[in-house]
């Protein structure tokens, strides 16, 4: 059966998205130190697909990643059910980005699962360029915070140096909970999401 130009274009875009998303996904999960859960790849690829701009038959490109914001890396532990805080992001003219983080308290801003007494929250600021075949991913800055019933984290301002060239600028949050079962078995649960997504040059 002869394919129409539209069908060929769609197949080309699917191939492009699949290849670039896989490279990006593997690098991202390695940085976060979390596994890819069932159906994660398909869900993530579908969200990445929505960033495609331009004529798919001529020059499809990955555009603004804003739509990634809120994507859940673990549907069994949605970010909004494990946390209750909202970082305030501020773009600064000198190329910096400021992220204002509120005070983080156990069972108030960090909502633990049963049998959990502590958590580690890590925030990553990173850039990536899916329009490059190599899909470079670079962590610009990260902060790690331990929170428990006896150790809250005070409010702070996180300054991030934003570097060219143009590409995606992402802030990813990942919280890991260690839960104890049967007194001796320790299992780790996690929740992660894109807290903010935009372009490095706006």
Write the layout of secondary structure elements.
Blueprint: H1 5-32, H2 40-49, E1 52-53, E2 61-62, H3 79-82, E3 88-91, E4 96-101, E5 116-128, E6 137-148, E7 156-161, E8 168-181, E9 185-199
Antiparallel strand pairs: 1-2, 3-4, 4-7, 5-6, 5-8, 8-9
Helix pairs in contact: 1-2
List keywords for this structure.
single chain; 202 residues; 4-stranded antiparallel beta sheet; 3-stranded antiparallel beta sheet; 3 helices
How would you characterize the overall build of this protein?
The longest helix has 28 residues, at 5-32. A hairpin with an 8-residue loop joins strand 5 and strand 6. The strands form 3 sheets. The chain has a 4-stranded antiparallel β-sheet with strand order 6-5-8-9. It has a 3-stranded antiparallel β-sheet with strand order 3-4-7, with no helix packed on it. With 202 residues, the protein is α+β, with helices and mostly antiparallel strands. It is built from 3 helices and 9 strands, in the order ααββαβββββββ.
Secondary-structure element string:
HHEEHEEEEEEE
- What is the alpha-carbon Rg in Å? 19 Å
The end-to-end distance, rounded to whole angstroms, is 45 Å
Shape: globular
Main β-sheet, in a few words? 4 strands, antiparallel
Uncertain parts: none
Based on DSSP secondary structure assignment, what is the total number of beta strands?
9
């Amino acid at each position: 059966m002869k394919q129409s130009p539209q069908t060929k274009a769609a197949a080309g875009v699917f191939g492009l998205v699949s290849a670039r998303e896989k490279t990006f996904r593997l690098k991202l999960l390695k940085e976060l130190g979390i596994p890819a859960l069932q159906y994660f790849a398909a869900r993530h690829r579908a969200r990445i697909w929505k960033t495609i701009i331009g004529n798919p038959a001529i020059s499809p490109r990955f555009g603004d990643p804003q739509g990634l914001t809120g994507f859940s890396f673990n549907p069994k532990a949605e970010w909004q059910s494990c946390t209750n805080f909202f970082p305030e992001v501020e773009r600064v003219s000198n190329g910096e980005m400021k992220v204002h983080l509120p005070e983080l308290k156990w069972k108030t801003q960090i909502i633990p699962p049963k049998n959990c007494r502590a958590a580690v929250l890590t925030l990553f600021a990173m850039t990536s360029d899916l329009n490059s075949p190599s899909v470079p991913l670079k962590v610009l800055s990260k902060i790690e915070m331990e929170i428990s019933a006896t150790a809250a984290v005070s409010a702070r301002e996180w300054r991030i140096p934003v570097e060219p060239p143009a590409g995606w600028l992402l802030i990813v949050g990942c919280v890991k909970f260690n839960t104890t079962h049967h007194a001796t078995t320790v299992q780790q649960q996690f929740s992660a999401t894109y807290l903010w997504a935009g372009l490095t040059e706006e």
